[in-house]
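Protocol step 4 of 6: structure prediction from sequence.
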Amino acid sequence: MAKKEKEALFKCPKCSCVGLEVVEINVTASSPIHVISEDGNFHYGKPNIEGGEVGYFGCEKCGFELKDEKGNQLTEHDEVVAWCRKNCKQE
């Protein structure tokens, strides 16, 4: 039986939301258009996202950005894990 991977939990210090998001930059996104209504509204399908790089990680509700002690935005996964373990209560 495989050992369960230990999770790093996130809780925003500003708003207490537990939703973490990654904001990517230099991304190419395209979406199929399924319907164009008579009043000009487009109904899009699932977007296709290619390329890009991590801009920063932050709270999906209030936009709080995860930063290191020097004020730099976190862009690496291991930095986010360490930040969460240090700044968020782990159960």
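Step 5 (inspection) to follow. The CA atoms of residues 27 and 51 lie 5 Å apart.
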